[in-house]
Records
---
Amino acid sequence: MNSVQGLLAASVISIQNSCFIYPACQNCFSRLILDSRRFNCLKCGCTGEAKDASYRYRLSLKIADTNDLFDITVFGSCLDPFFGVTAENLQRYIQDFNQLSGETNTESTARALVQAVETCFIGKRFIFGV
């Protein structure tokens, strides 16, 4: 599943999602269902305390090479160098920022993150392993 079949040099046209971090199951990497105290993985049945949930990057992009458009999703730690921190730490920074600033509208923090990601990725050329 993680083997690269080929390389594709392409430019990022747009960001397809506004949520780049998700709570991920340690066993199967599926999205966890979180409530205020617990997490649950619907795929493998893993459960635990919400405070112990780990996070993972998921960045969906529309890209173009010289001939075609593609929709791709980039997962996991390969995005750490672009964000400068792990998904776990970025999630913690966002939560801490919202708490310390007294920010009740977390939508403004999310918009700022989307703008930063768009600035860093859109129009840039990357080599993708597909």
---
Amino acid sequence: FAKISNGIHKCCFNCEICPNGTYLNITEDPYECINCKDTEWSAAGSTSCNLRELEFVPFTDIGAILIMVGAWALVVLTVAMSVLFAINYNTPVVRSAGGPMCFLIFGCLCLSNVSVFFYFGKPTASSCVMRLFPFIMFYTVCLACFVVRSFQIVFIFKIAAKFPKLHSV
């Protein structure tokens, strides 16, 4: 507890606990909490700071293994759907689903799922970049394709029904 002066007399004081990230050195200054360095931490009411320890999820953790198996399953499913769409490319079903845009959607979904594998193991500068960039970039493209496809469907069915001459232009 730091001694906080109370009134005009030096002998009167209130005690306040030092918050997280600070400590009290009684021999140096019993009246003020000292901030820990950026590489250190302390609990409330501490008299010293502790070094921060880097913790990460290893590849061998059961939760990491389950997440990676799920990501691989999604990648395999996405690739299988891409192959199925490629085999049946000229059919009306694939054309109505979006045609070439489907391959862009499948590719972006596959690449955004691959970014999951960079969240495990000891972090490095490159793995931190590979965690976020592929997911943000490819998932955004995938969502943009869904928005475009939704707009196309609305345009074709709703607007064409109300304005048939506009659709034929």
---
Amino acid sequence: NAGTEADVYISVYGERGDTGSRQLLRSQKSKKFLKGQTDIFAVEAVHLGHLYKIVIGHNGLGSGNGWFLDKVVIKDPTTDLDYTFLCHRWLDQGQDDGSIARELIVTDASTFPGRQELELKREETWAAEKWKFQRGNTLQFYNRLTCGFICLSPDSRVDALGDKKNKYGKVFFMWMCA
């Protein structure tokens, strides 16, 4: 029941103005807004410059009108840029916060230069370091401010007294800068 039969509307906002409310009428699919389906719509508008937000919602009419929206991607044919607006929420009077419209802010690489590179570095770092966080390992953080250790034990205990010596034997050290 994550799809909707209600009329869906979108307003797109850019640095040069907005489209106003536009109903999404003709999808490339025969039945639009079904659960797990990606629908594609053409919306004619003047060039808005760089996009920064959208407002998307529905009229709340029809049986089972609640809708779970994952994301909206707008492809600008003038600049060949993609703008991603993450939602991952319900637009449903009986779910979530009861709202049938959402204001979404752009979250893609066109707004955050270097985001893809940063994400790749994060993934590489986690791949190299995740073994330290496996079950059974004790982690010790050395706090340079107190010159003591903070230990996280496998049994979920935290020793934050700040002892000045390593009393746990085989541990993995991580440095905290205060």
